[in-house]
Design brief:
The protein is α/β, with parallel strands linked by helices. It folds into three domains: 38-148 and 190-353, Response regulator (Rossmann fold); 150-185, no CATH class; 377-549, 3-Layer(bba) Sandwich (Glucose Oxidase, domain 1), CATH 3.50.30.80. 35% of the residues lie in helices and 13% in strands. The two termini are 33 Å apart. The chain binds FE2/S2 (inorganic) cluster and magnesium ion (MG). FE2/S2 (inorganic) cluster binds next to loops. Pfam families: ILV_EDD_C (PF24877), ILVD_EDD_N (PF00920). Belongs to the IlvD/Edd family.
């Protein structure tokens, strides 16, 4: 097999000259022939001044390079786009597929025998894994690692579950402006990803479970020296994989590996976004995520990880308790241990190496779970023919069966304008409905599903209401919130038919979400809907590609032409 610089040579009839040219140019960087004749490990650079979560990427890159060279191969760092949650207008999800395309094409375009992708902020690991799966080169993933926790007045703070909680206190008048400013400086005390079980942590745990990263790599805090050593080792492993040619993502991502990932997603109380990303990753293989099977796993798999927002600890505590290897050990026969990993062996080896930590309470045993059922349930009903999701582990138990009057917001903007209006006709028993916030509608399915409780209700001490939308929600949020209603309203899904005053019934036990309006009336309303058309924002460029080809949540919100044919 052709390796190193000779890979992907476009010869136009004279391969000798093509290689000669290639070497002539790269030698401008000062490389020797000895360096250029070795197998190459590409390393993505997603450092950006806009991405504090990736603040340690330069140090990790140095460590990976060291590892690659210690193993006798040649590291080549190349840039791809970087996506940080706070600086991704209109939404980070809108950019995920762009990053996946960028990463995939640069892996293909440049000669490399293996690749190390370093990412972490919510959409980056999914994008990089989607790319790696499609390029199918031996790949080691390195999550940048979670932030360490913050402290305020004797309380532990975490981004960004406590961002919302503290802001809620401020909105309710419980803390003043001076205090909220102090909190603002303490919520994200180091580089790294949000240290609660948000999307970043969820995807890092899923990556480790899929065998795409080294054991413990999901949980080692970003600023720890152990993270740097893990990066060095990842570099070494990538160099070995560059020589042997495997394992490739296609060898690791088996149906059993995807099942393991879904078990872990439920057991960690993971982010609902994790399901969309896992679906997108699977759709780039010949395998699929089946929502009904995922829901069934939710009934069988207990939540074992006591992390915010479902529980009380943070990622560093999960790490010191034994991390994902210990979790998989506790999950026992729910995990298929024959799956291979980039560490060289199987999950059986990973689990065998799990550390015993006396007295730890972040990872529970199966006979003493946080909740006997998993974190998420898939709902269906006349409001969500292709499904919706609820993270019931982070919901109010008394609202899991609830019928209430709909209070409809037409869009994120409409909600922003009206939700705190003292004249808004709303009570705590109502169901807040947000629409036009799906993949096409918003665009990019913003994390707007965590509709704020109207201020006048908040002031009465009510902290939760049933809220439903076609949007996503940050994995760091808490509440009785139905998300990803599919099809979305912008493509004529039934959510578009709801009117303020209609009754909506949520029944999580029965896995139902229904609009209690008779069929005849719904048909009339459906007929009266405006015909879908291309909105102004989608007239040109990436926005156009996005609008024309984005799939719904149940298909992972990837572009329809990126999907690989399934085996079903
Ligand atoms: Fe980057 Fe939370 S903002 S992981
Ligand atoms: Mg997030």
């Amino acid at each position: 097999m052709t390796k190193g610089l000779k890979k992907g040579l476009t010869s136009y009839g004279d391969p000798g000259f093509s290689l000669f040219l290639r070497k002539a140019f790269i030698k401008a960087m000062g490389y020797s022939d000895d360096a250029l004749e070795r197998p190459i490990v590409g390393i993505t650079n997603t450092y950006s001044d806009y991405n504090p979560c990736h603040g340690n990427v330069p140090q990790l890159i140095e460590a990976v390079k060291r590892g690659v060279m210690l193993a006798g191969a040649m590291p080549m760092v190349f840039p791809t786009i970087s996506i940080a949650e706070s600086f991704s207008f209109p939404t980070s999800m809108y950019l995920r597929n762009l990053m996946a395309m960028d990463t995939e094409e640069m892996i293909r375009a440049q000669p490399m025998d293996a690749v190390v992708v370093i990412g972490g902020c919510d959409k980056t690991l999914p994008a990089q894994i989607m790319a790696a799966v499609s390029a199918d080169l031996p790949t080691v993933v390195i999550p940048v690692g979670p932030m360490v926790v913050g402290h305020h007045k004797g309380e532990v703070l975490g981004a960004c579950t406590d961002c919302r909680r503290m802001w809620g206190k401020f909105r309710a008048g419980e803390i003043d402006e001076v205090e909220i400013e102090a909190v603002n400086g303490r919520l994200a005390p180091s580089v790294g990803t949000c240290m609660v079980m948000g999307t970043a942590s969820t995807m890092a745990c899923i990556t480790e479970t899929l065998g795409l990263s080294l054991p413990m790599s999901a949980t080692i805090p970003a600023p720890h020296s152990e993270r740097v050593r893990s990066a060095e080792l990842s570099g070494k492993r990538a160099a070995e994989m560059a020589v042997t040619g495997g394992p490739r993502p296609s060898e690791l991502l088996t149906p059993a590996a995807f099942r393991n990932a879904q078990v872990v997603l439920q057991a960690i109380g993971g982010s609902t976004n994790g399901l969309i990303h896992l679906t997108a990753i699977a759709n780039r293989t010949e395998h699929r995520i089946d929502l009904a099977a995922f829901d069934q796993l939710g009934r069988d798999v207990p939540v074992l990880i006591d992390l915010k927002p479902s529980g009380s600890h943070y990622m560093e505590h999960f790490h010191h308790a034994g991390g994902v290897p210990k979790l998989m050990k506790q999950l026992g026969d729910l995990i298929d241990l024959d799956q291979k990993t980039v560490a060289g062996g199987t999950l059986r080896d990973v689990v065998a190496s799990a550390e015993e930590v006396p007295g730890q309470d972040a990872i529970r045993p199966r006979d003493n779970p946080i909740t006997p059922e998993g974190a998420m349930a898939v709902l269906h009903g006349n409001l969500a023919p292709r499904g919706a999701i609820i993270k019931h582990s982070a919901a109010s138990p008394k609202l899991l069966q609830h019928t209430g009057r709909a209070v409809v917001f037409e869009s994120v903007e409409d909600m922003t304008l009206r939700v705190d209006d003292p004249a808004l006709d709303v009570t705590a028993d109502d169901v807040l409905v947000l629409r036009n916030a799906g993949p096409k509608g918003a665009p990019g399915m913003p994390e707007a599903g965590y509709l704020p409780i109207p201020q006048k209700i908040l002031r009465t001490g009510v902290k939760d209401m049933v809220r439903i939308s076609d949007a996503r929600m940050s994995g760091t949020a808490f509440g009785t919130i139905v998300l990803h209603i599919t099809p979305e309203s912008a493509v004529g899904g039934p959510l578009a038919l709801v009117q303020t005053g209609d009754m909506i019934r949520l029944d999580v036990q029965k896995r139902r979400i229904d609009l209690l309006v008779d069929e005849v009336e719904l048909t009339l309303r459906q007929r009266a809907l405006p015909k879908p058309s291309t909105p102004e924002w989608a007239a040109r460029g990436y926005a156009h590609l996005f609008h024309e080809t984005i799939t719904q949540a149940d298909e992972g919100c990837d572009f329809d032409f990126m999907r690989r044919d399934g085996k079903e």
